[in-house]
Amino acid sequence: MTLFSAGPFQRRLLRWYTAHQRDLPWRRSKNPYHIWVSEVMLQQTQVATVVDYYRRFLQAFPDIGTLAVAELQDVLKLWEGLGYYARAANLHKAARQIVAGGKKRVPRTPETFGRLPGVGDYINAAVSSIAFGHPLPVVDGNVKRVLARLFLLDEPVNRPSNHRVFLEKARLLLAFKDPGTFNQAMMELGALVCKPGRPLCDQCPVASFCGAHQAGRVTDFPRRLAARKNPHHHLAVGLVKKGNRFLIVRRPATGLLAGLWEMPGGRVEKPENPADACCRAVLESVGLTVFPGPRLARVAHAYTHFKITMDLFACDVVSGRVKRNGYQAHHWIRMKDIGQYPFHRAMHKAFAALAGALPP
DNA sequence: AAATCGGGGTT
DNA sequence: AACCCAGATTT
């Protein structure tokens, strides 16, 4: 391939970015903490999804000190529905580490910032370049796609060992004068023009530099390894009532949906019927012997690596008192209290089904 | 190096 | 349905 000239590429890209960039709330701020929060929320999450969460989060936690003294429950409540809840826990933990070290601001050097929980190579490069001007290239999903097309890179983008290939190309292109703006321009190009399905090459400011475009092979890139099929799981959970209250439990601090609340339950094992599975799972997880009532709801939900069907059964307590196994906490609450707790999406679907089945 | 970790939008 | 998204951490 001919020698790639970074200067003209950068000028074309940056001129396009100046004219076409979206007006996003975090681009109106120079506060490093704001930039940081936005980058964490934007991890594997589209811009349109993040905007409202970003505003609400910064209204509640306007600075690192405020976040550090907050309860994790309250941080998770503001993260509710956004997914990848370890991001919230790590951000919260990082804020506490900064305050515990006698500071109240984002570390200005990549070496220090990069040691905080939840700060990997991408977020370190993004915050360090955008907020502090450090010349570190960012490589996210958008940038990988742009680079694969620009340089006809055959390496599958979803193979971890190929990451360094993309990082080296990004480093070659990086504009040292204003690396933060350049990095954002590369990502914006991927999001608005160099899109996965139908790239808008006729609107692309750097099409004349693009190997895939010149070769008429834009849709051949990026290459990717085939994903394997997702398994399906059947879950059964109980609406366990005591008077006018029902039981909710808080999931463990690590793993799937860490720290979120739900109704107790578990997997439906092979020969089992869902109602029996519900009773068994309630007994195993909270120590209550319950008798199954009617099925109140059936919810379908998809996670990244599996799908679930979740059945919700009314349950009457026969005997026992709560003895938790695995869960962090339990509360007996009324339906009007559910807004006080962070629940995962499948649980919200169940609540919605209940509201529809039992109109007021 | 692969698996895990959400949820929603797009095609 | 499969793919994709301003990835990080654990195994």
UniProtKB/TrEMBL annotation:
UniProt similarity note: Belongs to the Nth/MutY family.
UniProt entry keywords in alphabetical sequence: 4Fe-4S, DNA damage, DNA repair, Glycosidase, Hydrolase, Iron, Iron-sulfur, Metal-binding
Keyword DNA damage part of the UniProt annotation: yes
Domain Nudix hydrolase: 230-358
Catalytic activity: Hydrolyzes free adenine bases from 7,8-dihydro-8-oxoguanine:adenine mismatched double-stranded DNA, leaving an apurinic site
Biological role: Adenine glycosylase active on G-A mispairs. MutY also corrects error-prone DNA synthesis past GO lesions which are due to the oxidatively damaged form of guanine: 7,8-dihydro-8-oxoguanine (8-oxo-dGTP).
Organism name: Desulfosudis oleivorans (strain DSM 6200 / JCM 39069 / Hxd3) (Desulfococcus oleovorans)
Cofactor: [4Fe-4S] cluster
GO molecular function: 4 iron, 4 sulfur cluster binding; 8-oxo-7,8-dihydroguanine DNA N-glycosylase activity; adenine/guanine mispair binding; metal ion binding; oxidized purine DNA binding; purine-specific mismatch base pair DNA N-glycosylase activity
Name this polypeptide is given: Adenine DNA glycosylase
Keyword ATP-binding: no
Cited SUPFAM superfamilies: DNA-glycosylase, Nudix
Record EC number: 3.2.2.31
Top-level EC class: hydrolase
NCBIfam families from the UniProt entry: mutY
Coiled coil: none
GO annotation, biological process: base-excision repair; mismatch repair
